[in-house]
Amino acid sequence: MLDQQWQLHPSSTSSSTPPGLVNLGNTCFVNVVLQCLTWVPSFIDLLRSEPGGNDVVSTLQRTLEQCRGDIIGQRVDPTPLLQALAGQASHLVKPPKGLTSQGQQDAAEFLLWLLDHLHTIFITRQEAESDDQKRHREELLKTLGANRLAFSEAKSLHLSSYQNCLTAMSEMDWELHLLKNSSSIYSQFLGQVTEVRECQGCKTMSVNFEYFTVLPVPVVTHDTIGSLEECLSLFAQEEKMDKTNMIRCSCAELKFVAGKRIALLSHYPRNLILALKRFSYDVARGPSSRTMLLYLYL
């Protein structure tokens, strides 16, 4: 685990084996996510500060506290939590010991669902928008639109040609997004990616802001085991967009045209979760599988 200065920290100060979760038949995709979240101090503090009236929240609180216990080799039974999860995410989790057996599922998909579900529970309920707040929001939208227009005249994908404009836009879009999407979960796990595109036909630049709780990054394609730094560098590299991933542009009446893009991490979350992309696609050979791993940075 790494902090925001990218310093490595051990998950536990104890050299003993921490308590483990019982696998109740293909529930390892749940267990691996829970084991990671168990050792995120800010997430544990968040759960402890929230009321436990919701079944998923209360059983998650109890399960993670048991996982943080001091009993060496303790077996933690996740049955109550799995029952609560099955009531909310039946497409992923089946009731333990039920008539329907639990199938294999994707750990990253479950983590995305869990964070989104907790966000909807903990989302900050906004009071009616005041006149001042409305004017501020409208001014942000107006200024953001003007900056988008100015940005379209940038000369190339080189960051130096539009960095100040892009930084201002990302800050405004971030503020607008949080006006309606603020929660204690997002305060810890939400990040922003800024995607810049250039049409190869008319050279017009466009920008799009995307938000994530789990960031997918490409896998380095050499025989040796690559580092996460290499994966992040590959994520930020300029990419040609043609054939299967072309862009739309007004110069072609919004039809698909070739272009280029780069993606920039414009807002880092407090806790950064990376998922290595598992699949590549080759037109001749079809999809090929790659190993998926989740990395949690603090």
In words, what does this structure look like?
This protein is of the alpha+beta class and 298 residues long. The protein is globular. Helix 3 (55-67) runs antiparallel to helix 4 (79-88). The relative contact order is 0.12. The chain has helices at residues 28-38, 41-49, 55-67, 79-88, 107-122, 131-151, 163-180, 186-189, 228-235; strands spanning 20-21, 75-76, 191-199, 205-212, 215-217, 239-241, 247-249, 255-257, 259-267, 272-276, 279-282, 286-289, 294-297. The model is unreliable at 1-15 and 287-292 (pLDDT under 50). The longest helix is centred in the middle third of the chain and has 21 residues, at 131-151. The protein has nine helices and 13 strands.
Radius of gyration from CA coordinates: 22 Å
Taken from the alpha-carbon principal axes, the silhouette is globular
The ordered H/E elements are: EHHHEHHHHHEEEHEEEEEEEE
Beta-strand content bin: 15-25%
Distance between the termini: 6 Å
**Largest sheet geometry:** 4 strands, antiparallel
By secondary-structure content and strand pairing, the structural class works out as alpha+beta
Helicity level: 25-40%
Q: What is the compact description of this entry?
A:
With 298 residues, this protein is α+β, with helices and mostly antiparallel strands. The protein is 37% helix and 20% strand. It has helices spanning 28-38, 41-49, 55-67, 79-88, 107-122, 131-151, 163-180, 186-189, 228-235, and strands at 20-21, 75-76, 191-199, 205-212, 215-217, 239-241, 247-249, 255-257, 259-267, 272-276, 279-282, 286-289, 294-297.
